[in-house]
Specification:
The chain is an alpha/beta fold. Helix content is 39%, strand content 20%. Helix 2 runs antiparallel to helix 4. It binds adenosine-5'-diphosphate. Belongs to the aldehyde dehydrogenase family.
């Protein structure tokens, strides 16, 4: 009999061109069978005690720790990021999320007694937490480990089964996650990983999961919410950002410059919470730039151990960044540092960090998510104008305010339309399991982490009992 040759996809490291692996896609038609498997597995998984479920998450954590070096190397290669970024921003927060679930799931999922009002005297009230069923997690490529695992862990601990569809842009990490769950010995079909792109994602979305947790672009988020609405499926949408960093005249300029450089250029700006706009009071623009430029000009790009930032992850993303920078320069913006797009090597996956000045609010670079190593700087005349500019986009994920005046910082913070505000810091770390994370406006719908991070994957069930 002749062997059937299934088509395999080759995966290359964006930074070096090295072949990382080959894999076969999951056919889109497999979605309904996967959903059926997940539902069958759910009937037993939900009946395990929280402690038993969490013991599998501990197995997973130990499997990650055992292989941490190889995992860091693979993430770095697949995304094009430096190894330190893979370790510190992708793996460590994932381990932290595992520990968080291990530590808190049991208590948080215990039924809660509620004080019965006088009118209902003689009855006992409580709230119980019932798992939703099967959670579909669709994840992106920039932090492919953390942004897949983080929602999965809470959903699993709460008693749900999970189907993960990782991004086709970083499929090696998707495969790695599948292997790690197999190592952790989860019961069959409690976790299934579907490998493929848009079509597969759409097919899974249509297969009626009980919840969809999506992280990715606004455009895809809208498509997913529309499909979900047809079947009344609840969703969490973690979408893009155009995060403003407001620097006021009494800020510590050295710290602010360090924050801006890190916030704008880490992972080559391919971070949903990266600093995408810097809004600065007129009178400190010059001294701030003097602090900023030497830091930016000293950033080392590459894939070696001493490099600060890696490559872009995909050619598609380079094209988006290029278009926005070109448009800004054509409309009168000036390059303070970095290369003009006409000088970019079309073969290279690197974009030199760019700082732009003389930008206007209506330019795409100030309105649309760039997701690249570009920092546009705009002047503001005082606090009110800074707030107006900061709130002047369709996004609202993170924002930061830099000033030594704490009262002013809190006042501004309260007026910012944003899921999170940092005072004298940037990029809220997702390792902050104690704080809710999510966006306002087109940056997203819903929150995870925080007090409700595990319970959000449950139905709240009200139980009232007559004590007779
Ligand atoms: P990005 O452009 O930043 O990769 P996307 O929103 O396109 O963001 O992709 C994020 C995730 O959503 C990926 O896993 C991708 O395969 C998936 N995806 C893209 N289009 C759809 C769709 N129509 N339905 C479901 N999932 C999709």
């Amino acid at each position: 009999m002749q062997a059937v040759n299934k088509e395999t996809i080759k995966v290359y490291a964006p930074a070096t061109g090295e072949l990382i692996m080959e894999y076969e896609e999951t056919p889109a038609a497999a979605a309904s069978a996967m959903m059926e498997n997940a539902r069958t597995a759910f009937s037993e998984w939900r009946d395990l005690s929280v402690r038993e479920r969490v013991s599998y998450i501990k197995n997973l954590r130990l499997a990650v720790v055992e292989q941490i070096d190889e995992i860091a190397d693979l993430i770095a290669k697949d995304v094009g990021k430096v190894r330190t970024d893979a370790l510190v921003a992708d793996i460590m927060p994932s381990l932290d999320a595992m520990l968080h679930v291990e530590k808190h799931a049991e208590k948080t999922l215990r039924s809660q007694k509620v004080k019965t009002p006088f009118l209902l005297m003689g009855k006992k009230s409580s709230v119980e937490y019932m798992p939703l069923g099967t959670v579909l997690v669709i994840s992106p490529w920039n932090y492919p480990f953390l942004l897949s695992l983080s929602p999965m862990l809470s959903a699993l601990a709460a008693g749900n089964t999970v189907i993960l569809k990782p991004s086709e842009v970083t499929p090696a990490v998707g495969k790695l996650i599948e292997t790690l769950f197999a190592k952790a010995n989860f019961p069959p079909n409690v976790v299934q990983v579907a490998h493929g792109g848009k079509e597969l994602g759409a097919s899974l979305t249509n297969a009626k999961p009980d919840y969809i947790f999506f992280t990715g672009s606004v455009a895809t988020g809208k498509i997913i919410q529309q499909t979900a609405a047809k079947n009344l499926i609840p969703t969490t949408l973690e979408l893009g950002g155009k995060d403003p960093m407001i620097v006021l005249k009494d800020a510590n300029l050295k710290r602010a410059a360090q924050g801006a450089a890190w916030g704008a250029f880490t992972n080559s700006g391919q971070v949903c919470m990266s600093v995408e706009r810097l809004i600065i009071e007129d009178e400190i623009l010059e001294p701030f730039i003097e602090e900023l430029l030497p830091i930016v000009n000293n950033l080392k790009q590459g894939s070696g151990p001493d490099d600060d930032i890696g490559s872009m992850t995909s050619r598609m993303q380079i094209d988006i960044v290029k278009k926005q920078v070109e448009e800004a320069l054509e409309k009168g913006a000036r390059l303070l540092t970095g290369e003009h797009p006409s000088d970019w090597d079309p073969e290279s996956m690197y974009i030199k960090p760019i700082v732009l000045i003389d930008v206007e609010e209506d330019m795409a670079i100030m309105q649309d998510e760039t997701f690249g190593p570009v920092l546009p700087i705009i002047k503001a005349n005082g606090e009110d104008e800074a707030i107006r500019i900061a709130n002047g986009t369709r996004y609202g994920l993170n924002a930061s305010v830099w000033t030594e005046n704490k009262e002013q910082a809190r006042r501004i913070s309260s007026k910012l339309q944003s899921g999170a505000v940092l005072i004298n810091d940037v990029v809220i770390t997702v390792a902050n399991n104690h704080l809710p994370f999510g966006g306002v406006k087109e940056s997203g719908v819903g929150r995870y982490h925080g007090e409700n991070g595990i319970r959000m994957f449950c139905h709240e069930k009200a139980v009232m009992e007559d004590l007779g």
